[in-house]
């Protein structure tokens, strides 16, 4: 005998946004779902497709999707350019059965694939041309027979930078009892006797606790599902609106609390519980239909309502790997805590070995491999130095928005690459920001790609000219409310060199953020191997920028470029300062990347210049806070990059989820 749980999975495909897919052509999404039992995949069956628009022939552009065996295939759409949004607005329901037990249900897998055809127009001639699978992800739903409603931004790898905004509603609808009988037993079948044996075993009499246990396992699950759907609908469409009075009556209709039966006969109790299940199941079917109609009518509202909850969920999960300290100061010249980098490294090692960290919870629904394994998860140490009293960490659910912005103001962010780099180096960071903040204009600088061995001052001027040209060419019809800068390595210094040439825009400057930028040069505390490499570049490659970074471009320290750069205007125009570094990075000395003064700077005469440069920079900053972030990576001790201390420097650019965590640390930076 078995009790089957009937579960519906309602998937809303709200909108698609192309972030950086460069292949033009036709695309659609393909879904299937299953769980694994005894090494067998049990697939869900697609039941129904709901579309607000009128039906058109399948696979013509913008026509609705369709059901195909175990698959749902969405509408086909054409991608023509970056930052393009396409409304999908389709809803599909799958149904799947799972054998109930008193243990946790298996994990449900929703497989989503991005399908591609390089044609720009579908005609009779090429309609049969096969679409190929470009990318695929798996969404995992834990204990799915208990139900959940969640927003999921479906994203793939960096080669396929796009997002499909979806909401997924897992709804346990009913339980169906199927006794295992043979032909000889058909006439003797007693349904409620079989059911009582399933619920209570061979007990001849049952107590109050026995009844509560069974009701909680089955009746209460359906009851909670009903209440959860009501809340989901109410929050999405705002029931305070007077226009929704008719629906309001429906949603305010309370489902009576399920009664307890004062009975000891197991068959009578089994019959009572089964009647309760059937009663709630009937109401659930009607409410599921109302949920689908609500999604059809209020596509945007449903997506936004659940997206904000998802943002809070993800923030809390990333927060398990972000450790925050706040120091209130009168000025930014206070010396740093001694050996902060070494201390953070030891703490990170202990955290990764801790039982708690290795058993971090996963959200009830998540994209597989989105969260790294705890053993290799980057750990962030956020040190905030503040001139004002610090309040509780500021966070708003709407700071992250995967959907196309409807506002008229935009935030221009300029990216500058490092030594011997290219505009492509910062593309991963650029795409992550575009994913979270659609109200941004993003410019990856390319004018210095072949010139990073030249004078940094000239590179700064070149960057400034590129920014002015971009604003004139691309922002004439767009209202730019903020202008911010992100630089990696040498790019951070190029930005600082460009700022005096951009003073006309200083009133709009938002944030300045650098990743492993040696603001105080390489005078001290760099790797011996790095020193040798720099000596080679200066000696045989005639690399002038390396001379400037090592402050050997003049015999008088005060006449070197970096010292003079510490005295120029620029950083005081920014409202937010973020300095991202890694103690593991030998390519950018830790305190140099953090523009930080250590206690030994105050006593060691050799480091007088280092101290003066830091003082020159920090004393000009008018922002209320400086955010310093030390990133601890789990780095394999193999390969040349690890040996020379370059691995952390590269991972600043390449680590897939680092920017996700940075945005959680500095979400206010990115506001318009």
From TrEMBL:
UniProt entry tagged with the keyword Coiled coil: yes
InterPro entries: AB_hydrolase_fold (IPR029058), DUF3657 (IPR022122), DUF676_lipase-like (IPR007751), Lipase-like (IPR044294)
Source taxon at top rank: Eukaryota
Keyword entries, A-Z: Coiled coil
Positions in coiled-coil regions: 234-261
Domain DUF676: 409-592
Key word Coiled coil present: yes
Family of this protein: Belongs to the FAM135 family.
Protein name: DUF676 domain-containing protein
